[in-house]
């Protein structure tokens, strides 16, 4: 069983070809919650450069990871010198990570890191908005509905948030004892992942089974977050996913999040209101709940934010 791979350039074809692409995207959203895009318009030379600068940036962080809490805990457990148990490692992720957004400090090395990642984020943001427009069409919503719903109606300058998480999952001596990234659904809107095309480990939960998200060279993996589930009134479910720790290889993962403004009010689209009945809430309030319950069942999060 393989995650759908969609030729995104078909959206720019004739009416028949475009309809085929929209149907494939609808299937990806409704049946999987994850799908991969090829021929997405992001220059392949840029993707290669992103891969290069992110891998080089990790080399400068590698020694810090070796001194990190997950490594220390695993070494203590393997040594068996104290009362530490395997349960103590279940709240750790075998992951080195840093976040990029418009207002924080980015790594200064390698020299072209900032320039490359700025260009990449610009391209990826445009791709996210095209994906959301396809979702608008498939859901029977006005073009631009999802993007507009991610903004704060009371402030034209309060636009959706776009962040990028650069992760590496280094080789792990005991992948049976620790997870690369624990199972969760994503809190926000549309997630765009440029994953490693050689080292696997990403899995989604489908029909009670964990399914590998197969590496596809130069593809961008798309998944829908909790806010898309709400806006679609449950038609597009956010999906549980995880990253396995691997004994060999150093998995690179660059995930970008097109999320609502913290002040945006999220609710089911009026055209889609019905039996599911998700509550309306301010996204910032949802994030306060999510920060405490990220790795727990998602349904109580919706109820908790409803009570705020």
Automatic annotation (TrEMBL):
Uppermost EC category: oxidoreductase
Keyword hit for Iron: yes
Protein name: 1-aminocyclopropane-1-carboxylate oxidase
Gene Ontology BP annotations: ethylene biosynthetic process; fruit ripening
Underlying gene: MAO1B
Catalytic activity: 1-aminocyclopropane-1-carboxylate + L-ascorbate + O2 = ethene + L-dehydroascorbate + hydrogen cyanide + CO2 + 2 H2O
Database matches in Gene3D superfamilies: B-lactam Antibiotic, Isopenicillin N Synthase, Chain
Keywords: Ethylene biosynthesis, Fruit ripening, Iron, Metal-binding, Oxidoreductase, Vitamin C
InterPro entries noted in UniProt: DIOX_N, IPNS-like_FE2OG_OXY, IPNS-like_sf, Oxoglu/Fe-dep_dioxygenase_dom, Plant_2OG-oxidoreductases
Protein's pathway: Alkene biosynthesis; ethylene biosynthesis via S-adenosyl-L-methionine; ethylene from S-adenosyl-L-methionine: step 2/2
